[in-house]
Amino acid sequence: MQALIGLLQNIGVFLAFLAARFAVLVVVLAALTVVFLVGLGVVRLAGRVRRHALGLTKVGGLVWRPGLYYSPGHAWLQWKGTSRLRVGLDDLAQHLLARVSEVTLPAIGQVLQAGDVVATVRAGRRQALIPAPVSGQVVAINRRLLRNPSLIHNDPYARGWLYAVAPSDAGHARLPYGEPARGWFSGEAHRFSRFMEHQLGHAVADGGELVAPGPSLLTEEQWEEMTKEFLASPVG
Q1: What is the pTM of this model?
Q2: Which one in 2, 123, 164, 195 has a CA-CA gap of 20 to 30 Å to 103?
Q3: Tally of structural domains, the chain
Q4: Is 53 helix (H, G, I), strand (E, B) or coil?
Q5: Measured between alpha carbons, how far is residue 236 from residues 133, 175, 207, 233 in Å?
Q6: Which of 14, 35, 54 is the last residue of a domain?
Q7: Same domain, 111 and 86
Q8: Residues 48 and 144 in one domain
Q9: Is pLDDT above 50 for 235?
Q10: Is residue 235 domain-resident?
Q11: Are both 42 and 123 inside the same structural domain?
Q12: pLDDT digits (tens, 9 = 90+) for 52-66
């Protein structure tokens, strides 16, 4: 009888030990969950603050940023100081280039003519040629983008910029800016949606948002037609 009582006492002690360890584990997991949720909230809040600071808004289901010039090849241009224009790709372009894996940029000092191929973007097994929207000399490149090409997707209007150019003429002044740029961008978003619907035979937008991974479903011929339609900059 004494042996049975002793055994039960030992089992009770063991169960109490397990319960205590489990309680500690629950507390630790709860604390980690709180830290994770707080961190996630901070990240989301920072993202909202950043989007607000940049003035980002949805136009035709795509993100548009005011205060930029927009080229027919879906590059944006922004004055940095008084002598150089920073160049990047807009949100429509980054939708075309799904899963960017590699970017090549021009050399500093390289002289460009509007329409010249100035960069290449590899998206999976495909490559897109990016034309220069204006003429001038390259004065800076985004080395961070070379290390992290996904910035084209994650932050196309800021950290995902491509290069900066000292323009040799006022060609940028002929590009849409302000409300005309917003109207042009809206038209391009709808044109892209219609293009993809025609190529794939089904809608790529849901409630104004572009949701389908359309470009990745295109054939090689369709891909070439798409890049010619939306990424090429006509000269003149």
Answers
A1: 0.75
A2: 195
A3: 2
A4: helix
A5: 11, 12, 37, 9
A6: 54
A7: yes
A8: no
A9: no
A10: no
A11: no
A12: 567 999 999 999 999
